[in-house]
Specification:
This protein is α/β, with parallel strands linked by helices and 235 residues long. Helices cover 42% and strands 17% of the residues. An eight-stranded parallel β-barrel has the order 1-2-3-4-5-6-7-8, surrounded by six helices. The longest helix is centred in the C-terminal third of the chain and has 19 residues. It starts with 6 loop residues before the first strand and ends with a helix.
Length: 235
């Protein structure tokens, strides 16, 4: 892992997992979203966020706005930003009606609010951000590589173009989102992507890096054998 330049951010909304992962040196930041919070059973957004921020004070952490109205989105962003210097505000590239959020993004970026632009899928969306992100403000562009791959397309193309497009903007970082497997970390790193978000389930597999494949083959066979034996299968 020490040879990788890419920064690994832990993705999730389980309080214990977040606090435990924050302690690990190779975890450089954390992200969450309303869907993950719902899955974790969180009822009060701000109470949860503020509780987490009492323990996570240095590493960057992203919290997302959830309004569909641009004016309200802006107000939420300003409130979320006020919770801590390490907070990045997640703003979707459009609202749920498909209306571009570029005006709100520009306004917040010009006001030096740390932004994480989320749900980016196309190079045309990235170009919109090129014209609206203040290069002096800290910003992350989250490209949903895993979901792009789900459609049968290679996400490497948009990642590569985006990295090149912002190569002279030191405050803007490209993030590989919706990671599907451990190898994505190496793919993103080779494309010079600055950040990748990884779920706890995939993070557990880091110990398998360079694991002996013959031993892994035997481990797998033992798993199949022991599971069949435990159930008592007969033919």
């Amino acid at each position: 892992m020490h040879k990788l330049k890419i920064k690994i951010f832990a993705d999730g909304a389980d309080e214990k997992h977040m606090l435990d992962l924050n302690k690990l040196k190779h975890i450089k930041g954390l992200t969450t979203n309303p869907s993950l919070m719902k899955k974790a059973g969180i009822k009060n957004y701000s109470v949860f966020a503020k509780k987490i921020l009492k323990k996570i004070k240095i590493k960057p952490i992203s919290f997302e706005v959830f309004s569909d109205k641009h004016e309200e989105m802006y107000k939420q962003a300003k409130i979320i930003s006020s919770w801590g210097k390490n907070v990045y505000v997640k703003i979707p590239i459009t609202n749920s009606k498909g209306k571009s959020c570029h005006k709100i993004i520009k306004k917040l970026s010009d006001e030096k609010v740390n932004l994480n632009i989320t749900a980016v899928f196309t190079i045309s969306q990235v170009k919109i951000l090129k014209n609206n992100l203040n290069p002096k403000s800290k910003s992350i562009i989250s490209i949903f590589a895993g979901r792009i791959a789900d459609t049968g397309r290679n996400p490497a193309d948009i990642i590569k173009q985006s990295v090149k497009m912002f190569s002279k903007h030191k405050n803007v970082e490209i993030l590989w989102a919706s990671t599907r497997e451990l190898f994505n970390i190496f793919e993103a790193n080779n494309l010079k992507c600055q950040i990748i978000t990884v779920t706890p389930d995939i993070l557990k597999k880091i110990k398998l890096i360079n694991y002996n494949l013959n031993k892994y083959s035997l481990d797998t066979i033992k798993d199949f054998y022991n599971d069949a034996k435990a159930v008592g299968y007969k033919i």
